[in-house]
Amino acid sequence: MDSLYHRKSIRKYKDTPISNKDLESILEAAVRASNTGNMQLYSIVVTTDAGIKQQLCEQAHFNQSMVAKAPVVLTFCADLHRFTQWCSMRNAEPGFDNFLSFFTATIDAVIAAQTACVAAESLGLGICYLGTTNYNAQNIIDILQLPPLVIPVTTVVVGYPDESPDVTHRLPMEAVVHYQTYTMPNNQTIEQWYTPKEQLEESVRFVAENNVQNLAQVFTQKRYTTQNNKVFSQKLLEVLYKQLCMNNQ
Fold it and tell me: Which of 159, 164, 213, 228 has CB atoms 3.0–4.6 Å from 13's, for a disulfide?
Protein backbone atom coordinates (compact mmCIF):
# COMPACT_ATOMS: atom_id res chain seq x y z
CA MET A 1 0.00 0.00 0.00
CA ASP A 2 2.85 2.37 0.78
CA SER A 3 4.25 1.81 -2.71
CA LEU A 4 0.87 2.57 -4.27
CA TYR A 5 0.29 5.70 -2.22
CA HIS A 6 3.71 7.16 -2.97
CA ARG A 7 4.29 6.07 -6.56
CA LYS A 8 5.75 8.49 -9.09
CA SER A 9 6.48 8.48 -12.80
CA ILE A 10 10.17 8.05 -13.64
CA ARG A 11 11.59 9.56 -16.83
CA LYS A 12 15.33 9.12 -16.21
CA TYR A 13 16.85 5.64 -15.90
CA LYS A 14 20.17 4.07 -15.00
CA ASP A 15 21.96 1.80 -17.47
CA THR A 16 21.51 -1.11 -15.08
CA PRO A 17 19.70 -3.96 -16.90
CA ILE A 18 16.66 -5.66 -15.43
CA SER A 19 17.38 -9.28 -14.56
CA ASN A 20 15.55 -11.96 -16.53
CA LYS A 21 14.08 -13.21 -13.27
CA ASP A 22 12.55 -9.83 -12.40
CA LEU A 23 11.31 -9.26 -15.94
CA GLU A 24 9.67 -12.68 -15.99
CA SER A 25 8.04 -11.95 -12.63
CA ILE A 26 6.60 -8.69 -13.96
CA LEU A 27 5.27 -10.36 -17.10
CA GLU A 28 3.83 -13.28 -15.15
CA ALA A 29 1.94 -10.85 -12.92
CA ALA A 30 0.56 -9.09 -16.00
CA VAL A 31 -0.56 -12.37 -17.54
CA ARG A 32 -2.36 -13.24 -14.31
CA ALA A 33 -4.36 -9.99 -14.36
CA SER A 34 -8.15 -9.85 -14.51
CA ASN A 35 -9.60 -9.83 -18.02
CA THR A 36 -12.90 -10.16 -19.86
CA GLY A 37 -14.28 -13.69 -19.99
CA ASN A 38 -10.78 -15.08 -19.43
CA MET A 39 -10.19 -14.55 -23.15
CA GLN A 40 -7.01 -12.52 -22.51
CA LEU A 41 -7.51 -10.30 -25.54
CA TYR A 42 -4.14 -8.59 -25.25
CA SER A 43 -0.47 -9.14 -26.00
CA ILE A 44 2.69 -7.58 -24.59
CA VAL A 45 5.62 -6.80 -26.86
CA VAL A 46 8.84 -6.65 -24.85
CA THR A 47 11.52 -4.49 -26.46
CA THR A 48 15.09 -4.53 -25.15
CA ASP A 49 16.94 -4.20 -28.47
CA ALA A 50 18.62 -0.79 -28.65
CA GLY A 51 17.91 -0.36 -32.35
CA ILE A 52 14.20 -1.06 -32.06
CA LYS A 53 13.92 1.15 -28.98
CA GLN A 54 15.54 3.95 -30.95
CA GLN A 55 13.03 3.48 -33.79
CA LEU A 56 10.17 3.61 -31.31
CA CYS A 57 11.67 6.69 -29.70
CA GLU A 58 12.07 8.61 -32.95
CA GLN A 59 9.12 7.39 -35.01
CA ALA A 60 6.42 6.75 -32.42
CA HIS A 61 7.09 8.57 -29.17
CA PHE A 62 8.16 12.08 -30.20
CA ASN A 63 11.82 11.53 -29.27
CA GLN A 64 11.19 11.08 -25.57
CA SER A 65 14.68 9.96 -24.52
CA MET A 66 13.42 7.58 -21.83
CA VAL A 67 12.15 5.25 -24.59
CA ALA A 68 15.68 4.72 -25.87
CA LYS A 69 17.41 4.80 -22.48
CA ALA A 70 15.11 2.63 -20.32
CA PRO A 71 16.30 -1.00 -20.42
CA VAL A 72 12.82 -2.33 -21.20
CA VAL A 73 9.92 -0.96 -23.23
CA LEU A 74 6.59 -2.79 -22.90
CA THR A 75 3.96 -2.20 -25.58
CA PHE A 76 0.54 -3.45 -24.52
CA CYS A 77 -1.74 -4.31 -27.42
CA ALA A 78 -5.39 -5.11 -27.85
CA ASP A 79 -5.01 -8.51 -29.50
CA LEU A 80 -8.05 -10.00 -31.24
CA HIS A 81 -5.90 -11.96 -33.69
CA ARG A 82 -4.84 -14.82 -31.43
CA PHE A 83 -8.34 -15.57 -30.12
CA THR A 84 -9.84 -15.26 -33.61
CA GLN A 85 -7.30 -17.71 -34.98
CA TRP A 86 -8.08 -20.22 -32.22
CA CYS A 87 -11.82 -19.92 -32.84
CA SER A 88 -11.33 -20.49 -36.57
CA MET A 89 -9.29 -23.61 -35.86
CA ARG A 90 -12.13 -24.98 -33.72
CA ASN A 91 -14.98 -24.45 -36.18
CA ALA A 92 -16.25 -21.54 -34.06
CA GLU A 93 -17.10 -18.50 -36.16
CA PRO A 94 -15.29 -15.49 -34.66
CA GLY A 95 -16.93 -12.09 -34.55
CA PHE A 96 -14.29 -9.85 -33.04
CA ASP A 97 -13.47 -7.50 -35.94
CA ASN A 98 -15.53 -4.65 -34.48
CA PHE A 99 -15.29 -1.68 -32.15
CA LEU A 100 -16.89 -3.35 -29.13
CA SER A 101 -14.34 -6.16 -29.22
CA PHE A 102 -11.54 -3.61 -29.59
CA PHE A 103 -12.85 -1.71 -26.59
CA THR A 104 -13.03 -4.92 -24.56
CA ALA A 105 -9.49 -5.86 -25.57
CA THR A 106 -8.29 -2.37 -24.71
CA ILE A 107 -9.64 -2.75 -21.18
CA ASP A 108 -7.83 -6.08 -20.86
CA ALA A 109 -4.58 -4.56 -22.12
CA VAL A 110 -4.73 -1.62 -19.72
CA ILE A 111 -5.47 -3.86 -16.74
CA ALA A 112 -2.46 -6.00 -17.68
CA ALA A 113 -0.33 -2.87 -18.05
CA GLN A 114 -1.23 -1.51 -14.64
CA THR A 115 -0.63 -4.90 -13.04
CA ALA A 116 2.82 -4.98 -14.64
CA CYS A 117 3.51 -1.50 -13.29
CA VAL A 118 2.54 -2.42 -9.75
CA ALA A 119 4.71 -5.54 -9.97
CA ALA A 120 7.67 -3.56 -11.32
CA GLU A 121 7.43 -0.90 -8.62
CA SER A 122 7.22 -3.58 -5.94
CA LEU A 123 10.64 -4.77 -7.15
CA GLY A 124 12.17 -1.30 -6.79
CA LEU A 125 11.88 -0.41 -10.46
CA GLY A 126 10.46 2.78 -11.93
CA ILE A 127 7.88 3.08 -14.69
CA CYS A 128 6.32 5.68 -16.92
CA TYR A 129 3.30 5.41 -19.23
CA LEU A 130 3.52 6.87 -22.74
CA GLY A 131 0.35 8.43 -24.08
CA THR A 132 2.00 8.85 -27.47
CA THR A 133 1.09 5.26 -28.31
CA ASN A 134 -2.37 6.36 -29.44
CA TYR A 135 -0.98 9.23 -31.50
CA ASN A 136 1.31 7.11 -33.64
CA ALA A 137 -0.29 3.68 -33.56
CA GLN A 138 0.46 2.94 -37.21
CA ASN A 139 4.17 3.60 -36.74
CA ILE A 140 4.23 1.20 -33.81
CA ILE A 141 2.34 -1.39 -35.84
CA ASP A 142 4.98 -1.13 -38.56
CA ILE A 143 7.99 -1.22 -36.24
CA LEU A 144 6.72 -4.11 -34.10
CA GLN A 145 5.22 -5.94 -37.09
CA LEU A 146 1.78 -6.26 -35.56
CA PRO A 147 -0.66 -8.34 -37.65
CA PRO A 148 -4.30 -7.44 -38.41
CA LEU A 149 -6.57 -7.37 -35.34
CA VAL A 150 -3.69 -6.23 -33.12
CA ILE A 151 -3.62 -2.57 -32.07
CA PRO A 152 -1.15 -0.91 -29.65
CA VAL A 153 -2.97 0.62 -26.70
CA THR A 154 -0.34 1.89 -24.27
CA THR A 155 3.40 1.73 -23.70
CA VAL A 156 5.34 1.53 -20.45
CA VAL A 157 9.06 2.09 -19.97
CA VAL A 158 10.67 0.21 -17.09
CA GLY A 159 14.03 0.51 -15.38
CA TYR A 160 15.98 1.51 -12.31
CA PRO A 161 15.31 5.18 -11.46
CA ASP A 162 18.05 7.73 -12.02
CA GLU A 163 16.01 10.50 -10.41
CA SER A 164 13.81 10.98 -7.38
CA PRO A 165 10.98 13.36 -8.28
CA ASP A 166 8.34 14.47 -5.83
CA VAL A 167 5.12 12.52 -5.61
CA THR A 168 2.75 13.93 -8.23
CA HIS A 169 -0.13 16.02 -6.96
CA ARG A 170 -3.56 14.45 -7.27
CA LEU A 171 -7.05 15.83 -6.82
CA PRO A 172 -8.62 15.06 -3.41
CA MET A 173 -10.43 11.75 -3.22
CA GLU A 174 -13.84 13.43 -2.98
CA ALA A 175 -13.29 14.92 -6.44
CA VAL A 176 -12.99 11.47 -7.99
CA VAL A 177 -15.02 9.10 -5.82
CA HIS A 178 -18.82 9.12 -5.87
CA TYR A 179 -21.00 7.03 -3.56
CA GLN A 180 -24.22 5.40 -4.76
CA THR A 181 -24.81 7.91 -7.59
CA TYR A 182 -22.81 10.60 -9.37
CA THR A 183 -22.71 13.91 -7.50
CA MET A 184 -22.58 16.96 -9.74
CA PRO A 185 -20.05 19.51 -8.40
CA ASN A 186 -20.89 23.20 -8.38
CA ASN A 187 -18.42 25.91 -9.37
CA GLN A 188 -17.41 26.55 -5.78
CA THR A 189 -16.49 22.90 -5.32
CA ILE A 190 -14.49 22.88 -8.56
CA GLU A 191 -12.61 25.91 -7.26
CA GLN A 192 -11.81 24.08 -4.03
CA TRP A 193 -10.54 21.02 -5.87
CA TYR A 194 -8.47 22.69 -8.57
CA THR A 195 -7.07 25.81 -6.87
CA PRO A 196 -4.39 23.85 -4.93
CA LYS A 197 -3.31 22.26 -8.23
CA GLU A 198 -3.11 25.67 -9.88
CA GLN A 199 -1.03 27.07 -7.04
CA LEU A 200 1.69 24.41 -7.25
CA GLU A 201 5.11 25.78 -8.16
CA GLU A 202 5.29 23.61 -11.28
CA SER A 203 1.82 24.74 -12.37
CA VAL A 204 2.78 28.39 -12.04
CA ARG A 205 5.91 27.64 -14.07
CA PHE A 206 3.91 25.87 -16.80
CA VAL A 207 1.62 28.88 -17.12
CA ALA A 208 4.56 31.27 -17.42
CA GLU A 209 6.48 29.06 -19.87
CA ASN A 210 3.46 28.67 -22.13
CA ASN A 211 2.52 32.36 -21.95
CA VAL A 212 -1.13 31.71 -21.09
CA GLN A 213 -3.47 32.98 -18.40
CA ASN A 214 -3.99 29.85 -16.33
CA LEU A 215 -3.32 26.12 -16.01
CA ALA A 216 -6.52 25.11 -17.79
CA GLN A 217 -5.31 26.98 -20.86
CA VAL A 218 -2.04 25.03 -20.76
CA PHE A 219 -4.09 21.89 -21.30
CA THR A 220 -6.51 23.27 -23.88
CA GLN A 221 -4.28 25.64 -25.85
CA LYS A 222 -0.87 23.94 -25.65
CA ARG A 223 -0.97 20.29 -24.64
CA TYR A 224 -4.23 18.84 -25.91
CA THR A 225 -5.61 21.28 -28.43
CA THR A 226 -8.89 20.75 -30.25
CA GLN A 227 -7.06 20.58 -33.58
CA ASN A 228 -4.56 17.98 -32.41
CA ASN A 229 -7.29 15.92 -30.78
CA LYS A 230 -9.20 15.86 -34.06
CA VAL A 231 -6.13 15.01 -36.14
CA PHE A 232 -4.98 12.17 -33.90
CA SER A 233 -8.55 10.90 -33.52
CA GLN A 234 -8.77 10.59 -37.29
CA LYS A 235 -5.41 8.83 -37.45
CA LEU A 236 -6.45 6.34 -34.78
CA LEU A 237 -9.79 5.69 -36.48
CA GLU A 238 -7.95 4.93 -39.71
CA VAL A 239 -5.75 2.46 -37.87
CA LEU A 240 -8.79 0.76 -36.34
CA TYR A 241 -10.51 0.42 -39.68
CA LYS A 242 -7.38 -1.05 -41.20
CA GLN A 243 -6.39 -3.39 -38.36
CA LEU A 244 -9.93 -4.57 -37.66
CA CYS A 245 -10.62 -5.05 -41.36
CA MET A 246 -13.75 -2.91 -40.96
CA ASN A 247 -13.56 -1.22 -44.37
CA ASN A 248 -15.45 -4.08 -45.96
CA GLN A 249 -18.27 -4.06 -43.41
Answer: 159
